[in-house]
Automatic annotation (TrEMBL):
This is Flavodoxin. InterPro entries: Flavdoxin-like (IPR001094), Flavodoxin (IPR050619), Flavodoxin/NO_synth (IPR008254), Flavodoxin_CS (IPR001226), Flavodoxin_lc (IPR010086), Flavoprotein-like_sf (IPR029039). GO terms for molecular function: electron transfer activity; FMN binding; oxidoreductase activity, acting on NAD(P)H, quinone or similar compound as acceptor. SUPFAM superfamilies: Flavoproteins (SSF52218). The lineage of its organism: Bacteria, Pseudomonadati, Pseudomonadota, Gammaproteobacteria, Pseudomonadales. Belongs to the flavodoxin family. Residues 4-173 form the Flavodoxin-like domain. It comes from Stutzerimonas kirkiae. Coiled coil: none annotated. It comes from the Bacteria.
Amino acid sequence: MARIGLFFGTNTGKTRKVAKLIKKRFDDDTVADPLNVNRTTLEEFAAYSHLILGTPTLGDGQLPGTSADCENESWEEFLPRLEGFDFSGKTIALFGLGDQVGYGEEFLDALIELYNFFTERGARLVGAWPSEGYEFEHSAALVDGKFVGLALDLDNQSGLTEERLDTWLKSIAADFDLPL
Ligand SMILES: Cc1cc2nc3c(=O)[nH]c(=O)nc-3n(C[C@H](O)[C@H](O)[C@H](O)COP(=O)(O)O)c2cc1C
């Protein structure tokens, strides 16, 4: 089994695409094939001490799921299943997709929901990301002036995605023992 679990939610597939870009950089012993949380069991998710988790922000600054008008279930429905689980001793890094032009008042807001959920259950969250290089009015996903995970905008800055991924993965390499 790979050392690092890679899970995502998505509506239109962009977050899956980014998860695949992450996976492509590592062998099967290091990072598992990305799995959509709507096809993931609690056991599969809980098996990893190190997790990389991705989400878009949809609806009104929400996690993907039926309330955000997604066709399929997603993080909204998966998180309650993890409710009673203790994530102490686990290390988690988040990446989020949003649209700073179309949704500049709630840019990447859903990231904070994952951050709060796993922090409250004992996980160590790493991979905070600077807010420079984006133009938005407000984001709930900022803590101490930084995004709580990698901020990606494939709607407006897709050309920066690979470079941002490289920089971010290097920044979490020590915590995840990544060969970078
Ligand atoms: C109906 C709708 C609502 C959205 N709401 C937000 C939002 O509140 N904040 C944000 O940053 N992006 C928002 N977005 C942009 C998406 O997060 C962005 O397009 C993302 O790349 C979609 O990822 P996916 O293809 O994995 O579903 C919204 C997009 C749609 C279509």
